[in-house]
């Protein structure tokens, strides 16, 4: 198969490679660049484990071809860890740890990037906005309770107060019956 | 100050939140360099004879190193569950007959990952379809047999005695109903994966995603016909298991066999759609519940008849009705309890453990029965429960199932849940909505549950070693996959030794380092592996005291641990010489390995109250609130404990209202992707209200019971009950799980029709 040359900035670093046109961005990141935090959990763009930022916007990297990311900038969870690669100073990762927003860790890199994207889009989040904003990211371990808290903390909110407001709210919960993989 | 009961944040997280965990498919281990990628060709038909398999075109595809069929594999087909009829073996790769959609038929090995599916598409298999057996009652008829040689589709019968026709003779009121505890998928976010490489020493290093390295080693060795010492199983980080990663999958042994056959490392990582047909699934019991008692609310007799679906090839699912029968009476003190179960094979994916594994099925059945009984006599369902639960003074209590409940205060748990939810007010809100005739009605469900944790595997080992630099290393035979043992076990050692948590490393899941171990399943870890770490720490202190006695010139009896300095000191002699664990380790290896045997299971319990809103025009259910009392004894780390409860509650709610693995009448799976399967997102769930209650068990010195599955067991019946309760005024008494909009809407239409 003929290769196509791509140049993709990943976490601030320029990467180039010759890739098959069908190569998924998720595989490019994992195999070609060697960044393994980004996981792949489904075949249908439903689970969001592969969520990364593409020029600042959260996308599911299993549904983006590497060639589509040519000349664009990708941020993965590794990109939040600072120069040292082990910093937990980023407000989102710090909140995930403080609120126990992860268990097995598989959804975590995608969830962290989805939350990062969500806060960038809407800094004034409440619990319902977080829950609906994360509708495209599945977690099997946490029941989302602490992920939602982590997102609220990262957005500068008091999670106890927000949960209280949501619990007492009569507002319609507009979510669909289950995830239909509508994308981030 | 004691670290016990404090909210220590996880030591696992810094890596998980920066470079990410290392799952099997992430491994860059140099032993795996140059590995071949395995792609399995899987049957698209549920039941068929294979008339031909043509692999020639696939062999010519780019990057293909080998394409193999069952004819190439020189291993006997394994029986995956020892108690099943011996003819019900699963071929490594099917050659004559396929029995479920997703059954492996051919193995394709390629140099690169993307080449595998390309080549697999070129494998040409001709199938002659056979009638598929999907329904368990059809299976029972034995008209179409999956294994003609076995002569039956039944793989196990528990309790062959005929039911006593006079069992309910002295009951004023008897209610009976068939209900379904539907099949669900474990759906761990990480699918199954394995990598194998054989060394020059003739040993296989096998990396797998699993809940028990030692069990996987023994099974794989047995299937390959080699000694267990020839297989070195290593578990990298595991992306969730929920019971479905207990025991080895035959694919693991196939990967090892292929690595030996080709002389190259082999990697395998399945896709989600393979996972949704290939990985074991949970539940799937058709239950007939019959409950009898008097109009004053006292239940006198309860019978549970189960037909369970093992799927195509019997696995652990064959055993789980044993747990269901053991826990049949739940939290209730019922004079007469009777149960039986029959397990059959069908042309579907095999069943095995899923969070709760046999106990949620028991709880849902008895809780539905209690609701039906309450409705029949016109009594509040919470009240009926309180009348019938085992009284606190009766513990330890031996049930009619022959099980000894260790400790419990079941009525108190119900009261706590009712109080937290302000049950009386909820009933008033419900009454007002009914009187107004609102389209959106609310329902309130109350569950009472007890379950078994650490059932069957009471023994666990641990080693604790302190190093000269003041750090410590703990090895455990348990096997976390999200639970946070690295933090919790470090807390247990730290509590005794005074070494800070961040200086204690907890390791697991390597059969060369820990040859024995029961892994993590059945909510067993804290009460077995955790207690073993506690015991090992105490034994390490004894050893340290013996050595310190000489150095400090004091008798052992006069020595104690100074946890502030991680040192041995002379009691009541401030300023006298001391020696730290690190200093002792500098002189001589300071290490203890111990085995803890709890000898018995423990029985956590609790009560949940769920409030749902049901749109009577559309059938849509929304869970508004859930209050959960989950009593598993003293809590080591509330952060971790709450996390387990949250996840469990979510999975129970999901079973009650969303999830179901569906096969059409031909055995075609209709829920083979996450776009089709009702996996809940954050948007479908509320936050959870947790209520604290801690009743210790006498079974171990720390009073710990298990918490991993409790939430699931308590929440599913509470939510199901709430949905039915929302529609009780229409005369509706039961709706099967999952209470999807369609099913709820149909129930409403039927009720309205009957009424009109």
Automatic annotation (TrEMBL), chain A:
Query: Entry's InterPro entries?
Result: 2Fe-2S-bd, 2Fe-2S-bd_dom_sf, 2Fe-2S_ferredoxin-like_sf, 2Fe-2S_ferredoxin-type, Beta-grasp_dom_sf, Diverse_Oxidoreductases
Origin: domain of life: Bacteria
Note the Pfam families from the entry: Fer2 (PF00111), Fer2_2 (PF01799)
The entry's keywords: 2Fe-2S, Iron, Iron-sulfur, Metal-binding, Oxidoreductase
The residues covered by the 2Fe-2S ferredoxin-type domain are: 4-80
* GO terms assigned for molecular function: 2 iron, 2 sulfur cluster binding; metal ion binding; oxidoreductase activity
Tell me the protein's name: Carbon-monoxide dehydrogenase small subunit
Q: What would be the name of the gene that encodes this protein? A: coxS
